[in-house]
Amino acid sequence: MSEEPREKPSHFIRDAVVEDLQTGRFKGVVTRFPPEPNGYLHIGHAKAIALDFGLALEFGGRCHLRFDDTNPAKESQEYVDAIMCDVRWLGFDWGAHLYYASDYFQQLYDWAVQLIRAGRAYVDDLSADQVAEYRGTLTQPGKESPYRSRSVVENLDLFERMRRGEFPDGTKTLRAKIDMAAGNLNLRDPVMYRIRKTSHHRTGDAWCIYPMYDWAHGQSDSIEGVTHSLCTLEYEDHRPLYDWYLDALGIYHPRQIEFARLNLSHTVMSKRRLLTLVEEGLVSGWDDPRMPTLAGLRRRGYTPEAIRDFCERIGIAKADNLVDVALLEHCVREDLNRRALRRMAVLRPLRLVIENYPEGQVEELEAVNNPEDSLAGTRKVPFSRVLCIEQDDFRDPPPPKYFRLSPGVEVRLRYAYIVKCTGVVRDAAGAVTEVRCTYDPASRGGDARGRKVKGTIHWVSASHSVPAEVRLYDNLFSVPKPDEVEDFKSVLNRHSLEVLTGCRVEPFLAGAEPGSRYQFERQGYFCVDSFESSPSGLVLNRTVGLRDTWAKIEKAEGH
User: Fold this and answer.
1) What Å distances lie between residue 385 and 11, 347, 382, CA to CA?
2) Quick one: DSSP state of residue 213?
3) Are 17 and 59 in contact (CB under 8 A)?
4) C-alpha to C-alpha distance for 184 and 212, rounded to whole angstroms
5) β-strands 349-354, 432-439 pairing
6) In the predicted structure, residue 288 carries a pLDDT above the cut 70
7) Torsions phi, psi for 300 (to 5 deg)
8) SS in 3 state form for 306-365?
9) Which strand (E) or helix (H) includes residue 108?
10) Which residues are catalytic?
11) Cβ-Cβ contacts under 8 Å for 153 (sequence gap 6 or more)
12) Helix (H, G, I), strand (E, B) or coil at 97
């Protein structure tokens, strides 16, 4: 099974890298993926990972994985481990180039002392609220702190005492002395260090002052020799500050280039909001299959190939836009169509009895494993007198244009025989509990012999099938742009999860490996859950249905 590889489209960042190499600005390519270990990675990070690692691979360079672990109050080893797992799962490897901003704490401290000695940084006693008040607005300049004129000697003494832990949290900060009237608010004496007497997941209690992200970020890139520092657009206004720091220290400059972050419909990308969903129990955890986290997508049955394909299709641009979640679903559907083995599963069983089929007889019928892959071969499916079919595959009376089973109507049983409904059994409330049929022994394999049989339905043998719990997932939010709603929790989709018990699946799924993926014929793509269990022992998560919304969107738009 093979397909022609699509040519990778170029984009403005790739063009910039090519130009830098051609002009000799850089001799090679060194990128980095710099997550903060304060949450799990989500699909938006996948775009950055694919860009950072992809460019390095394309140009024979290297990509570092660096944890910007400068805020111990929100970071943990759990997040570090999860991030490394996700990057590897996506198919990328940093080799020997695993780094942490905390590796550079001493160097950053020494550089801060260097700026103090040069009269370009000072210790400030203003509170966080006062700092914000003094900063001014986009239309009004800020005003200088009354502590801005402290002497170099006093600042060095105070900064050393900050490090020794002599002052309570929040009482002092170290700020760069730049320009309180600058048009760019990031240049209005930004905070470089704050006091935070919190144990760090790597350095323990060695430090009680921690560098701000903006102070650590650019210098970390410089230390590592990063050539192309790729950031999302919100860091564009921070670039002049990073340049100021690097110039003031007189150290190597990476080239920073910004691109638009991924905005995906019917979800939120803010780690703060995702953490709220987890902490308030609105989802089962970071790996809830409804979450846009890579852990959640993996548990739902998404493949790394599908996610990389999605990242390539959405491209790299400067302008923000909203990507329809239907495109992500299209990518995984297209990938799983090629690789997933076909199986039959009945999610809402209805008993079907074939009256003229010999009692006790069992046949093994041949079924194709994957029509898209000739190497996948076939399997034998047990067939018997009593089957289970989907409740939706029988109607009495049938609605207009209903081509499935109803009284007096014939349908094909997939891979098996043509059957005709001869009657039903109802309970006291009038609900159908059993369908009675006869079969045509000469129609094995579904041969209609010239008869017009419009419907084909799937089935499993009642006595040979195995029980399963099936979880049907839908979008977590009921509106395309939940971030624009004042209370994003108010638009959570109440129908984002439906749990079906009593499902019946082919016996081949008994003991299926966690994470294995299947197409349930006429149902969709499903994955064996990695963690959950049920009394049946088998839990299956629906990855995506068979209906391809994105293909319809593309057709409607004339693509």
Assistant:
1) 60, 20, 10
2) H
3) yes
4) 18
5) parallel
6) yes
7) -75, -15
8) HHHHHHHHHCCCCCCCEECHHHHHHHHHHHHHHHCEEECEECCEEEEEECCCCCCCCEEE
9) helix 105-117
10) 36, 261, 271
11) none
12) coil
Sign for the CA dihedral angle at 154, 155, 158, 163 comes to negative
User: What's the CA gap between 79 and 124, in Å, rounded?
Assistant: 33
Task: Answer whether 314's CB lies under 8 Å from 344's CB.
Answer: no
The dihedral formed by the CA atoms of 114, 119, 125 and 129, expressed in degrees to the nearest 10: -90
Model confidence, pTM: 0.93
Distance separating alpha carbons of residues 172 and 184, to the nearest angstrom: 24
Indicate the angle between helix axes 77-89 and 43-58, nearest 10 degrees. Answer: 60
Bridge partners of residue 352, in order along the sequence: 387, 435
Inform me whether the pLDDT recorded for 4 exceeds 60: no
What was the pLDDT predicted at 550? 65
Tokens coding 244:
């100021």
Q: Are 306 and 335 in contact (CB under 8 A)?
A: yes
Average pLDDT, the chain: 94
| 333-to-86, 314, 403, 549, 551 alpha-carbon distances in Å | 21, 16, 26, 11, 11
pLDDT for 265: 97
Give Cα 210 distance to the centre of its chain: 30
Helix (H, G, I), strand (E, B) or coil at 64: strand
